[in-house]
Amino acid sequence: MRRLGGFLLVVALLVMAAVWLVDQPDEITIRWQGWRIDTKMPILLLGLLFVAAFAAGLGRMARTVVGAPGRLSGARQTKRTLKGYRALSEGLAAVATGDTRRVARLAHQAEKLLKDPSLTGLLSVQAARMGGDESELRARFETMLTRPETAFLGLKGLTDLALRQGERDHARDYATRALSIQPSAEGLAATLFDLQAEAGLWAEAEITLSVARRYRTMPDEELARRRAQILYARAQAAEDRGNRVEALDLALAARKADPSFIPAIVLAAEILRRRGKERKAAQMIQAAFRIAPHPALVAAWIAFGPTDTPLERVKRVQRLVEVNQSSSEGHLALAEAALDAKLWGQARTRLMQALEERPSHRVLTLLARLEREENKDEKAALAWLAKAGALPPDPV
């Protein structure tokens, strides 16, 4: 509607002008500086149109002459930009092929032509990484920090570099800054949590865990275990201060967060045992052994009978193992107790069952001990130890 209204207004003005010209005398006289010009209206209009067209042509020519250097410079810049993008794409392709020299050359060329670290930074970083120059790599990452669009990549790269060089405090600082920029980054919250836990910064670790929970960057099971880790650390600190009430509450909270988190269960059971609540402590250890058999649980269970004879200890361990008779940890616990009691047949039976389920250092080491103590057979013992040496270390 607006365009239509403007068009009608222009047409009306043209009609009014035409009517006005028709009403004017046919002859026109112009006097200027002693000169006199007699002419007709159409000729005057044609002359004015010619002058206007001539002036417009002169103006366009002047703009063309004045703007020529800028257009030439723009054309050169466009050509440089196209060459820069070509170098950038070829450099990224060279990264995939592992051509270190070509990557370095194309990264330098792209950087020189584009002069935009936000575009060339990643290729320059790859060139430095492939070249093995960590000081250059650090400089490249630090350059990326100057621009908001590449700051996260720079901080993430500096975190990984600091971890590789053993600079744990610097890595923690970089990871904290990176997480504040991109809290949804996969794996970053877990890395930062581990660094904070390592430094004993449990309040900061709890904040990191809340970020991970909010942005769902950790599975629920991992969140629960790390939450239990925080609560256990606080419980241990309370225990060290002599505040056993708080320590027990925190250890039980850790157990609730993750029922298979053994350190918290052992601590809670130990506090309960010292307070004379052995029945409750025993039930807690048995419940944990049922779902997650572990040597620490066996040790805590044996601690209930500090004056047990070797035979009594076998019976005590038997009661624990009954809640999870299929676990190799139960076989090993009974085998070790039987070895102490010199019940060679029972020890061998349990060790062979454990060996059948999962060969490990502990199984083979106990078999070597059995050969030494029962048969005094050093050769057989050494044979078991040699097999143990060929296996990977037992999980801790």
From TrEMBL:
Point out the coiled-coil segments of this chain: none
Spans traversing the lipid bilayer: 41-62
Q: Which UniProt keywords apply?
A: Membrane, Transmembrane, Transmembrane helix
Spell out the subcellular localization from the entry: Membrane
Q: Major location, coarse class?
A: membrane
Q: Which residues form the HemY N-terminal domain?
A: 28-130
Do you know which Gene3D superfamilies this protein is assigned to? Tetratricopeptide repeat domain (1.25.40.10)
Task: List GO terms (cellular component aspect).
Answer: membrane
Report the superkingdom from the record: Bacteria
Name of a matching Pfam family: HemY_N
Q: What is this protein called?
A: HemY protein
Which lineage is the organism of this entry classified under, starting from the top rank? Bacteria, Pseudomonadati, Pseudomonadota, Alphaproteobacteria, Rhodospirillales
